[in-house]
Amino acid sequence: MPEQQAKICVHKLTKRFGELTVLDEISFEIRAGELVAIVGPTGCGKTTFLNTLSKLMPATAGQILIDGEEADPKKHNISYVFQEPTCLPWRTVRDNVAYGMEVKRVPYRERMERTDKIMELVGLSSCAGLYPNQVSASMIQRIAVSRAFAVEPDLLLMDEPYGQLDVKLRYYLEDELMHLWEKLQSTVLFVTHNIEEAVYVAQRILVLSAKPTKVKAEIPVNLPRPRSFLDPAFMEIRREVTELIRWW
Amino acid sequence: MQAYKEVVVKTPLPLRILPYLSVAVFLLIWELAVRTGMIPSVLLAPPSQVFSLFIDKLTQPNPDGAVLAVHAWTSLQEALIGYGLSLLVGIPLGLAMGWFRVVEGLARPIFELIRPIPPIAWIPLTVFWFGIGLAGKVFIIWIAGIVPCVINSYVGVRMTQPTLIQMARTYGANDWQIFCGLCVPSALPMVFGALQIALAYCWTNLVGAELLAANTGLGYLITMGGRLARPDIVVLGMVSVGVSGAVLGFIIDCIEKRLLAGIRR
Amino acid sequence: MSRAIANETVGISGGREGFSFYRCITNTWFLYCVSLSVFFLVWDRVAAWRIFGDSLAQPLVVLDKLYELTQIRFAGTNLGGHIWASTRRVLIGFSLASAIAVPLGLCMALNRYTNAVVKPVFDLFKPMPPIAWVSISILWFGVGEFSKIFIIAIGTFVPCLLNSYNGVRLVEPELYDVIRVLGGKRKDEIIEVCFPASFPAIFAGLQISLSVAWTCLLAAELMNARDGMGFLIKRGMDTYQPALVLGGMILIALMAWLSSLAITLIERRLCPWKTGIENL
Predict the structure, then answer these.
(1) Does residue A53 contact residue A241 with C-beta atoms inside 8 Å?
(2) What residues of A are in contact with residue B186 (Cβ under 8 Å)?
(3) Which residue of A174, C57, C150, C217 has the smallest Cβ count within 10 Å?
(4) Which segments of chain C belong to CATH 1.10.3720.10?
């Protein structure tokens, strides 16, 4: 991939809750269209990290710049795929996918076009008119992912989106995510506790330390796609990341 | 197919008969107790007498001044106007209190002051202000109905899943968008729950309002029965209040189910 | 918007933000003060300017009236006596009814046959507003103390019974399975699971009952009494003294609030595990 200018620039991001420092001067950059995974030990404040990045919580210090400007959910397109299901039970699958664009005031026609396109890509077209309580758990997570991609986000944050699904569905949805990402060229920050998943999807892995959280290492993953879990190079990276997380 | 059918658990026969039996026995004891003089007939009227009075009262305005239908219509009118007004004010107020902190800060203390006052305690003041006409009773019923409306709508909004709100926020939704698009729909089941509760409150306090300040209405019928020492009229009034309240409750229940089905599909 | 939305750190995410005028005027306590002062001011002005004629008394006049009542004997007793007369009626009626209704509700939920006998008769009485009993109770028991207690008991009975009945029926079946797997008997199921699990529902029923009880008391006393807070209101109505009426309303609201507070405290003591939703 040709070298691009940094799209997202996080500079000395710090978050304190009273005496407790959760994020300690985290700095890194993400290029446009890059998929970066973040892994870290349990309880290292990954969720806090994402909440701060998405501006759900004010940061104590530091900056988050998108295209050189201070990030603002009202101005920039930031999407967030949560761990928990976040479908609106009173909207159909189609309207759920369109919800993000509706908030962004995307004109109706364009909204519907994009919705249909994305639903086609992830195979939701057949249940467009159903309500979330009529579809399976994996479908619900797909809806959330499609909704996030549909707004053509500047930054897409994913917080263990597949953490609650079983292994088989997870592989399937990870492939689908790759597919979507390659098609739509979004900038994605993927948080997970599953190292294999991180190595499988990411171009680069940021390893976080335990609290107070810092970026401990940055590991590029230059493997060809589709990747294989049995590839020795894959296993080597996985081992390396595992060591980093286990050793502190 | 046959196998499934045999699995159905049958309610034992006594359990199916007992409910009817118990009502029948209850009515029978009531009838006999009065007829045999165990309970003096000045204190209680037997069911049969109440029923024949019911037939009479369909056409006879004596001795309380109006036929049953007029009483029922008056009560119904008061109750429904008060009920409608309390929904109209209470639900939006409760929803807004649940989401907008400024509204909550301003409305809650006053609401908390008014809430513990039993609605019928307002009777004297409403009589001073509005006389004993329709307006006074509507006011009391309105006060009674508004409390559950506010509480349920408020709690409904407060119970909105926080993740949904976060989700909307990350898309850059403003407070108003979140309120209309998320909080209100997710509060709807609780709001519909309030319909039923508010109706019960309204109906109860309607009787209270009419006992003291009225010249027609079912509550007035009961009071007149008491004043004339006619237990049959009192019992008829109580039964009519109960039955019409139950019917109204049933109608609201149907509406509620309809509405719920409409949003949950 | 300072609504806490961080899901793992709700309590402490307030943070220290700089002083700002907007935050100051949207502070909850500030708003409470504004709201209350506006309320009392409007009340005071409306009364002073006689918008409703003589039929509304200024707040201070009402307080003055209440103070005066503590000093003199009004209809045989002073203010404390009136409050006690009403409270005693509520306490007796309420405890009588709940002492019968709660066990009966539990029995109905636990035993199908009791349920089949009692439920239909109970359903006959359920839709009848308790206030509708006022006339007949006067007919039966005269104007004495017992007729008032009777109405309160009738009103209290219904929500108490309904809530304890539903409380038991809504216990999660898995909880019974825990006892059964451990080899417990039916008795253990009832004592270990049923009672504790239905406690919160029973208390909710008691709360509702209590507010119904005060309403019924008021209805009974308005119809017919020689003492009590309802009597004060009624006397105020008959002699056209808005201050007395309002004083009575304030007193009864205060007592209703205090008694419901008492129930809440007892409940917190008896079932500390209960996680209530944020409620008004």
Answers:
(1) no
(2) 89-90
(3) A174
(4) 67-270
